[in-house]
Write a structure and sequence with these properties.
By secondary structure, this protein is an alpha+beta fold. Helices cover 48% and strands 10% of the residues. It contains nine helices and four strands, in the order E-H-E-H-H-H-H-H-H-H-E-E-H. The protein has a four-stranded mixed β-sheet. The chain is globular.
Length: 224
């Protein structure tokens, strides 16, 4: 990720780059994406905003293909009771409903998200739609986002060539880029996601309200 300041910092019409670190297994990232998207729609300079998605893994040690319920995995990981985990989920569900999302944690399957992040890297200019489709698959549809067949199906649903994506995933493409993102997150000392960086200078952490993201974009537009 390039953190150099744009050369035309005084130009009100300059482009704005927003780098977003998030994880597919993070419900607050899903909520934050929708709040940011709402802010972007209301921002006059939205046509000059470029969003770049970067990988972050809340649990890089999660086993691939285990097929466990998210609830069961969190009970074990956090040492909490199922009732405590469900109470935690209930708060997230209420926040998700505020942006029109209906999350179903009873269906959600715990997954290692490394390959899902690789798919985002391979998606090119369709990355935003692929990210949304991955969130939807994980938190709404109860699909395993560490299953290659599921990833290929998601890619095809977003207009990518299924055979090409399968071949590139099988060849390991995108892995270096994901590792670079994970290293960048460590270098930036990012310990929680979503994390938004505008023009390499201005940062906002968390699924903030829409007006906070509008302020971030406005400051990025005028910041010297």
């Amino acid at each position: 990720m390039n953190h150099d300041a744009p050369t035309s910092a005084s130009d009100i019409d300059r482009d704005i780059t927003v780098d977003v670190f998030s994880d597919i297994a993070c419900p607050w990232c899903y909520i934050g994406k929708h709040r940011f998207a709402a802010a972007l729609r209301s921002f006059d300079g939205r046509d000059r905003v470029r969003v770049r998605w970067h990988a972050y893994q809340l649990d890089p040690t999660a086993p691939v293909g285990a097929g466990r319920r998210e609830i069961d995995a969190l009970v074990e990981m956090k040492g909490m009771s199922e009732e405590q985990v469900r109470q935690m989920f209930a708060q997230v569900v209420r926040n998700a409903q505020s942006v029109g999302l209906e999350l179903d944690f009873d269906r959600a399957i715990a997954a290692n998200t490394f390959d899902a992040h690789r798919l985002v890297q391979l998606a090119g200019d369709r990355a935003d739609g692929v990210v949304d489709a991955l969130f939807r698959a994980h938190f709404v549809e109860g699909r395993a986002v560490d299953d290659r067949d599921v990833l290929v199906d998601i890619a095809a649903s977003e207009g990518l060539d299924a055979d090409d994506v399968k071949s590139r995933l099988d060849a390991g493409e995108g892995a270096d880029e994901v590792r670079d993102d994970l290293a960048a997150a460590r270098q930036l000392q990012i310990t929680g996601v979503p994390f938004f960086i505008a023009n390499g200078r201005l940062a906002v952490s968390g699924a903030q309200p829409e007006d906070v993201f509008v302020q971030l974009l406005s400051q990025a537009e005028t910041h010297d």
